[in-house]
Design a protein that fits this description.
Function: Claudins function as major constituents of the tight junction complexes that regulate the permeability of epithelia.
Distance between the termini: 17 Å
Order of helices and strands: HEEEEHHEH
Radius of gyration: 20 Å
Number of helices: 4
Subcellular location: Cell junction, Tight junction; Cell membrane
Number of domains: 1
InterPro entries: Claudin (IPR006187), Claudin_CS (IPR017974), PMP22/EMP/MP20/Claudin (IPR004031)
Shape: elongated
Number of strands: 5
Membrane topology: Multi-pass membrane protein
CATH topology: Butyryl-CoA Dehydrogenase, subunit A, domain 3
Strand order of the largest sheet: 4-3-2-1-5
GO molecular function: structural molecule activity
Length: 183
């Protein structure tokens, strides 16, 4: 009974982590403009993501522009895009393997001692996916914090942590928890 609850909880965590990984990959709010001056009147908010930049003017008008050329992107951004795309694909595969493993272990005649290879594969894949999500999200967060406190960076170029980073950290934690439950 406890095994079934653990498997279903892992499936729930893995599913939510998979959706969070997809959301963090698609969201443009990885880096958000910071307002560190004493100026209260703010006309523009700038969002920088993996795929596009967006500018919100007065909270009314939102303009987004995809990056023009893949070759013009900085190498870390290219690597983060690749890692997040691999993580999304691996999250879907590990979630499907977890579904098959839970179904197999539920219908097994050998009882709770029967270990499904799909459960173990899903656990390892969830752990790998959580790590793949954690790397670009944490690296971007560290770069934002470093640049924010660097006096050499001009004030208009300072950025804050965006919502996509928090979604990425949360989904990474859920994926790692799901992987630990299945392993």
């Amino acid at each position: 009974m406890a095994c079934c609850v653990l498997q279903l909880t892992g499936l729930l965590f893995g599913g939510v982590g998979m959706v969070g990984t997809l959301a963090a990959t698609a969201m443009p709010q990885w880096r958000v403009s910071a307002y560190v001056d004493g100026n209260i009147v703010v006309f523009e908010t700038i969002w920088e993501g993996l795929w596009m930049d967006c500018i919100s003017q007065l909270g009314i008008r939102l303009q987004c522009k995809f990056y023009d050329s893949v070759l013009a992107l900085p190498p870390p951004l290219e690597a983060f895009r690749a890692l997040m795309c691999v993580a999304v694909g691996l999250a879907v595969l590990s979630f499907l393997a977890a579904i098959v493993g839970v179904k197999y272990s539920q219908h097994s005649k050998q009882g709770p001692q029967a270990i499904s290879i799909f459960i173990l594969a899903a656990g390892a894949a969830f752990l790998l996916t959580g790590t793949l999500v954690l790397i670009p999200v944490s690296w971007t967060g560290a770069g934002i914090v470093r640049d924010f406190y660097d006096p050499e960076v001009p004030t208009p170029l300072k950025r804050e942590l965006g919502a996509a980073l928090y979604v990425g950290w949360g989904s990474s934690a859920l994926l790692l928890a799901a992987g630990a439950m299945y392993c």
